[in-house]
Amino acid sequence: MSSDTHQPSLAGLAAPQPTDRLFFAVMPPVPLAQRIAALAQELRERLALRGKPRPTSHLHVTLHHLGDFAGVPQRLVESACAAAAGVALVPFEGSFDRVGSFAGRAGKNPFVLLGNHAGGGMAGLHATLGTRLAAAGLVRRERAFVPHVTLLYDARTVAPQPVETLAWPVHEFLLIHSLLGRTEYRVLGRWPLAART
């Protein structure tokens, strides 16, 4: 995957520090995001976690991570948007009923809300979008897809445990521009789910 912001490296100079992250995501509607945020706060207190809960407006399920960059690579954004426009799927329900920790960097383990099934609509959207991105030459090496919403990061790890099911109808997916270190998301594109005829 290439970007139009790439510059040849110069001897003795480090690569620019990434400032921008691009990823495709599904976001819950505001009322459910607020319920997820309340659950995160409740679990943080009950489990004696110290990490700061993610902002309500940032709660999402990552579908595909396009990379971290120094500046926004416009040609990559255009190619990714064109690939996304070809996704043809009907709306589905996203459903989550467990929490637990992933192994992360030392002292920064993601504590997440987990989907209640391995397959289903979220996996189908991930796979379909992944096929379109691969056809556009934008494929990245990724771990196996596990639908989840990151609630916070913490030094502790928590074994999987059930919570009340939280579900919402998924009608669209988005391309998000995250300004690294600034806790700011910008939506670069959104695509409604609808089977093409």
Total count of strands: 8
- The number of helical runs is 3
SSE class: alpha+beta
Low-confidence stretches: 1-10
* SSE string: EHEHEEHEEEE
The geometry reads as globular
List the domain count as a whole number: 1
Descriptive report:
The protein has three helices and eight strands. By secondary structure, it is an alpha+beta fold. It has a single domain, classed as Cyclic Phosphodiesterase, Chain: A, CATH 3.90.1140.10. The strands form two sheets. A four-stranded antiparallel beta sheet has the order 2-1-7-8, with helices on one face. Strands 5-4-3-6 form a four-stranded antiparallel beta sheet. α2 crosses α3. The radius of gyration is 18 Å and the shape is globular. The N terminus is likely disordered.
Structure summarized in a few sentences:
This protein is an alpha+beta fold and 197 residues long.
Label this structure with key terms.
alpha+beta, four-stranded antiparallel beta sheet, globular, 197 residues, 3 helices, Cyclic Phosphodiesterase, Chain: A
How are the elements arranged and paired?
Blueprint: E1 20-26, H1 30-46, E2 61-69, H2 74-85, E3 92-101, E4 109-115, H3 120-135, E5 148-154, E6 161-170, E7 172-179, E8 184-192
Antiparallel strand pairs: 1-2, 1-7, 3-4, 3-6, 4-5, 7-8
Helix pairs in contact: 2-3
